[in-house]
Design a protein that fits this description.
heterodimer; A: 374 residues; abc type-2 transporter like fold; 2 domains; elongated; B: 596 residues; alpha/beta; Rossmann fold; Alpha-Beta Plaits; six-stranded mixed β-sheet; 25% strand
Amino acid sequence: MRRWLNTLVNARLRAQIVKELLSLLRDPRSRLVVFAPPLMQLLVFTFAATLEVRNAGIAVYDRDAGRWSHELTARVAAADFVKQVYTVRSRDALRELIDRRKVIAGLDMGPDFSRAIAAGDTGIAQVIVDGRRSNAGQITVGYLNAIAAGVGADAGRDRRNTDPVVIRHWFNPNLIYRWFVVPALTGILVFFNALLITALSIARERELGTFDQLLVSPTTTLEIIVAKIMPALGIATVLGLLMIALAVFVFHVPLAGSFLLLLPSLLLFILSVVGIGLMISSVSATQQQAILGAFAVGVPSVLLSGFATPVENMPQVLQWAAQLIPLTHFLVIVEGTFLKAMPAADIIANTWPLAVIALVTLTLATRFVRSRLQ
Amino acid sequence: MSGATAHIASGTARGRGEAAVVIADVAKHFGRVEALCGFSATIHYGRLTGLVGPDGAGKTTLMRVMTGLLVPDGGSVTLAGFDVVEDNDAIHIASGYMPQRFGLYEDLSVLENMRLYARLRGMDADQHAATFEDLLDFTRLGPFTSRLAGRLSGGMKQKLGLACALMAKPEVLLLDEPSVGVDPVSRQDLWRMVRELTDDGMAVVWSTAYLDEAERCESVLLLNAGKLEFDGPPRELTRRIDRRSFRLEQVGAARRAVLSQALNLPTVSDGVIQGDAVRVVLRADAARDAIDALVAETGAALQPVQPRFEDAFIDLLGGGPGGTSALAERFDAVELESDIAVSCRDLSKRFGDFTATDSVSFEVRKGEIFGLLGPNGAGKSTTFKMLCGLLKPTAGEAQVVGRDLRRATGAAKSQLGYMAQKFSLYGLLSVRQNLDFSAGVYGLQGRARRERIDEMIETFDLQPYLGTSPDALPLGYKQRLALACALMHRPPVLFLDEPTSGVDPITRREFWTHINGLARKGVTVMVTTHFMDEAEYCDRVAMMYRARLIALDAPDALKRGAVDDAHPDPTMEDAFIHLVQSADLDAQARADASAA
């Protein structure tokens, strides 16, 4: 413990931390790597990359032209997600529109659609979906179903007074997509930020030859590693806090849980990522190798983390692999803290894996630096 | 001369001595840097012209202008009668250009590389079998045609580059620093080949930062900081210091003090150490009495000597620096626990099946300047890195002040100052921040740290550059900064890896003044160099060749061993070639013995 404290305050370490910070902040390229991608990704993810279907085109082939087919067409046209409704006169025209991607789905109502409803039967309308866009297509079918159910309910209300099933979404009652994406983005951006800063750090020195200079000096391997951790930890923490502030004050995502629990989890998360970055850096001979290494680790990490697809849906082997990724655990913590006030016990259940990953990766990085001397 | 070259030379009817390249008021600048400051010169057919100067003098820029790769900002250049800008296409046919790092494809064999260059030149490789044969014969690469270019030695790579540049039978051959990274024996081969080409009427331009190579050229263009300082036969320049060059002989152990005293005399313009002697150049029209007094005082013998090109260059620039090192003055006399500062025993390093260092042993005494000398790839750097704990030996052990630095504590490592190849400085930090960092990483704090940094700024005159990045510094200042950083903590042992490569001769003089001063204070200096004449400053020199230590002795003793009829007064380079050749003979004899 005393050795640790000595390490933390001595002049050699201070000089190195100052050096690390200066070389990060004085280098226009590093500044770009550190600050530009987070801002860009924030804009891209929150405004462009959305899982909701918006601005969709829908074709309507109305062979009925009765009261209820008009009603259904009008409601579809008025729906938020629809940009334009194309009225077609034949199945071929409908096929053509889907083929040319003018519309994502077509609604085909038979000649007896209104009659059947008026007679108290079920009016049948067929939905034809563009299977090439399966995900968006399914969501569209869901929206159309809801509209049709509404029409059916109104038609039924004429005779029987039955309410359709009402769905309530907990934690995010209006299913606002940003509520989900912005907290997750906090994790992803901090992840890439810390990973890139550290992956470049040792490789840069090795490329320039200054690493040898450092190794012959009286500084210890532990000091070298600590000096490389500090700036990354500092900058990534600032970035993480900034993202949280943006989420709360700009995007108005409710912070239901405890910020005081979120902060230490964030620090542990960054430490575990810093360990991975330093491991990559210590085995890379050039900065180019380090960047390739960082992306080779980073991209699969995001895919497996449960950001885009739930971890529970993956094959068992990948579920295990996902547990080794710091981002997986942090996403659970950050989503849980923001939207559902996850209790402390559940947060700790997800922080101790982060602590273990940090310990293992940082130890390995120190080992690698030392063994490079051999 | 030989039958082979008859096919290689262009066979044009141009007479020797006619103008091959005419340079008229050529100027080129990059941003605010004046690379070429507007000068005129002429290069002739049938002559070897040296383009000589330190790094950053403008040699490569001029080369690239002559080959039409760069458009000059002012003036014009005509090559073989073609304007390099207007008739750009013709230039590529009339000239052969070998850049510093020739673009060989390392994954192709020697022959495949040659065929590729022939095709790039629009030649049908199959119809030029005779040319290929001549070139292989000429470069003596015949036995290696199927070897991958990446696996050739530095010298053989240059020869292959030369073969490719000669492919289209150029009238003018431009070689950009062909001798860098080439061992002295291969270098002699290159000289021989170039001489055969000029004998056949080709104009050859040989650019180099080694000033001693200028003496081998028939004509020299001497560049310094973008200016043409001299144009003519090298002898014409050296004649200027003809009766002003002397050697103070038999000064032995006192040579560093004698040099320092001599350089401080106002009548002495330049001086260096040569083994046990001190070589001085007097200023033009200087009186002899001051130096005579020094000779009498030290009991030396004053001998007039042949002037050298490098000395003449320094005299041309107004003389070298003084003899006192302000840096060494501030050092306290060094105390060490042991008399042996650096030692290694049976030190070996293998990378896979490649042996970089093979069973090297030596001991360096306290206060000694110890040189590791050898061509690139001989194992100098590997040995060096094992000594200071940056590489783990495959076998044997290395110690600095009695400790293995790989396992040593911080205190033991503080005994060492290290200046890496190419002056590894933090380019992203300013000069001031670099100094701060070096002081901090060696644990200097508070007032001691401020004082030491100020001292370095003052000694090395760094004040005007404190806010700049080391990358933007002139090479000489970069070297000063690197030395300041390495000496910040006043180490008793100093490791210098190629400390003067590419640096101009005046800065090199200044550098050695510091090193000599430090050695007199008892600092032990380990230095690697490929400047053969710099080995003269060392107390003892270890010569490395193909991973082995082939000789270890005082410079004078090494030179004495190489005396023969052809070389009555051999240089260090002659001594090295002599040793390499006998080492090769020994290896041959051993191989024959084991075969029998």
